[in-house]
Amino acid sequence: MPLKIYKPTTPARRQTSVLTSGDVTGRARTKRLLVSVKRAAGRGQEGKITVRHQGGGERKKLRLVDFSRDKFDIPAKVVAIEYDPGRNSRLALLSYADGEKRYIIAPIDLKVGDPILSSEKKIDFKPGYAMPLVHIPAGMSVYNIELSPGRGGQLARSAGNAAILMGFDRGLAQLKLPSGEIRLVDDSGLATIGNVSNPDFKNIRWGKAGRMRHRGIRPTVRGKVMNPVDHPHGGGEGVNPIGLKHPKTPWGKPAFGVKTRKLDKASNKFILERRPSRRKKK
Prior knowledge:
The chain is mainly β. It has one helix spanning about 210-215; strands at about 5, 15-20, 35, 60-65, 75-80, 90-95, 100-105, 115, 130, 140-145, 145, 155, 165-170, 170-175, 180-185, 190-195, 270-275.
């Protein structure tokens, strides 16, 4: 999916690029696998904004994706590669031998007509094939990984992502996740071979505010340009620092780099190495 860069006919076009859709082979025609999404606009049950910077956007129908891959040992064939407005990866529409159709997250280089299989036993290591981690050799890239067996894939599902299987130890598989974190998961959980499709998504230059509004993303205003009544950083004349030792949220809680994970969280024992800090070192 190469990027298309527009000619600079306007100031916005100068900064804009889009993904070509040459890999998309079909549109959603399976109504049973479509679901309408009610617009929430970042508001809770009381109608108050609980998540800022959300609202508007194009109307969309999401695809029901099979994250569990629980149709074991039933061969399937890829009918189409489709676009999903609810995620940044491509979806593959599978037609199983028993006539059922399901969507899965498509790996890189999956083509229409390719066979797909999921099994609880050891099978071929082809892109899109799903099997328990214990049957996959160390060093392979996997995605759509189950944290708990039977719960469905939860790790490494966005465009271009994959985790690297590093080894096994006493019923646990050691994975290096896309974030750089190294953690243990149950080796009887399913994982899919390959890397998630559409890796160029991260290189898109959205170019102008209008494209972000189409995605349902509203403007983000800095706290330091607000009034004191609206934000802890507000107030002052001209260009001023925030005037505090540490930055805060609009509700006065610490922000930017503050860890929110509970210290006694039960799954801490499964994390061997934390993801590296993204803050720039001075």
